[in-house]
Amino acid sequence: MSVPAFILMMSYVGFGALARESGFSLTQAAFSTAVIWALPSQVVLAGALAAGTSLGLVALAVALASVRMTPMVAAWVPVVRGPKSTRFSLVLMSQFVAITAWIVTMNRMPTIPREGRGAFFMGFASSLTVCNTLVTMLSFIVAGELSDSWRAALLFLTPIYFLTSLTAAAKLPSDRFALLFGLIFGPLIYMTGIQLDLLLSGLLAGTLAFFVDKQIKKRAAHE
Amino acid sequence: MNLTFFSVDAWWWPYVFILLAGSLPTNIWRWLGVFVGGALRDDSDLLLWVRAVASALIAGVISKLILFPTGPLGDTSILLRLGATAIGMAAFWLCRKSILAGVLAAEAVLLAALFI
Does B59 touch chain A (CB under 8 A)? Predict the structure, then answer.
C-alpha cells in the first residue's frame, strides 16, 4: 500500500469518529463517504449537522469547500482520457477523483498505455472509495467501544491531518496567506455567534489573502 | 423554510440531506471540471481567489476543531491540544513536510499526556 493511501485511511478513521460525535448513524456515515468522497466536504457537512444548520446553507458551505475539484478534474481529464472515452464516461469516473486518487493518477498514468488508463483508474480509485467506506464504518463502531482518551485521539486525527496536508499542498503565497488568515478568522468569527460563521470567515480570510498577495506582487514589480 | 438534518421525521430524509447538501455541491465541481477540461488557466485571478476562499474555509474548520471540539476531545485541556498541534507541526517541518510524521507526533503527545 502506498503512503498517500495509508494516510488517507488514517484520516477516514478520524472521520468515522467525528461522524458519530456529530449525530450520524453508522449507515449515514458510510453513505456520506461513498457518495461524497471528499473529506473536506464531509467534515464541513458533519460540523454543520451538529450545529443544526439548514440545508441551503450547508450546501453552500460544502460547495465553497470543494471548489478545488474543478481545477483538479480539469487537469486529470487529459491524462486519463483514452480513445474510447466519452464525456459521459468521464463524468461518471470523475466521481472517484479526490486528492489521493488524483496524485496516483498524475504520478503513474504516464507509464500506462492510453487504452488501459480508464480501466486502471477505475480499478484503484473505486477500491480506494470502497476501502475507506469500510474504514469509516469500522472506526464509527470502534469509537463507540473505546475509552474517552482514545476517542479524543481519534477525533484529533481530522484537524491535524488537514492542517499538515493543507500546509504541504499550499504552494502558492495566496494559498499560504489564506491558510493562516482562515485559521485565525474561523474561531474569531465563531465566537461572535454569527449564524454563517464558516462561510463568512472563509470569504473574509480568503479575500484578504487574495488582496495581500496582489499587493505584495505589485510592490515586488515596482522595485 | 428551515430544513435541517433532523427536521424531517422519515428514515430516508438524512440520506436525501446528505445527497443534496453534501454530494451534489461537491460533484457539481467535478462535472464542471470534465467540461472545462484543459481550458481553465491555472493563474487566472478568479481561480486564485476561489482557491484562497476554499483554503481559508477549510482552515477555519481546522482551527474550530482544535479550539472548540465536541465530545471527548472537548474535555481535554486547550493548552494540551495547542501544544500537541505545535509539536506535530514541528515534526512535519523537520521531516521535510511529512504528513505522517506530523500526525503521529501530535497524536503521540496527546495520548501520552492523557495516559500519564
Answer: yes
Single out the residue of A163, A154, A137, A64 nearest to residue B70, CA to CA: A154
Of the candidates A77, A51, A220, the one whose C-alpha atom is nearest the C-alpha of residue B32 is A77
pLDDT computed for residue B43 by the predictor: 64
Inform me whether the C-beta atom of residue A190 falls under 8 Å from chain B C-beta atoms.
Answer: yes
Q: Which of B3, B8, B58 to mutate to test the interface with A (most CBs of A within 10 A)?
A: B58
Query: What is the average per-residue pLDDT within B63-87?
Result: 94
Q: Domain spans of chain A?
A: 3-169, 171-223
Is B79's Cβ below 8 Å from some Cβ in A? no
Asked if residue A17 has pLDDT above 70, the reply is yes
Q: By the 8 A CB rule, do B73 and A152 touch?
A: yes
**With 0-12 CB in 10 A as exposed, 13-18 as middle and 19+ as buried, what is B38?**
exposed
> Distance between CA atoms of A145 and A130, rounded to whole angstroms?
23
B28-38, pLDDT tens digit by residue?
A: 999 998 988 75
Place of cell 450547508: A58
Quickly state the pLDDT bin for A47 (edges 50, 70, 90): confident
Please report the ipTM that was assigned to this predicted complex: 0.86
- Which residues, 6 or more positions from B46, have their beta carbon under 8 angstroms from its beta carbon? none
- Based on its alpha-carbon atoms, the radius of gyration of chain A, rounded to whole angstroms, reads 19
Which of the 8 DSSP states describes residue A95?
T
- Measure B31 CA to nearest chain A CA, in Å: 6
Q: Which residues of chain B are within 8 Å of residue A67 when distances are taken between CB atoms?
A: 29, 50-51, 53-54
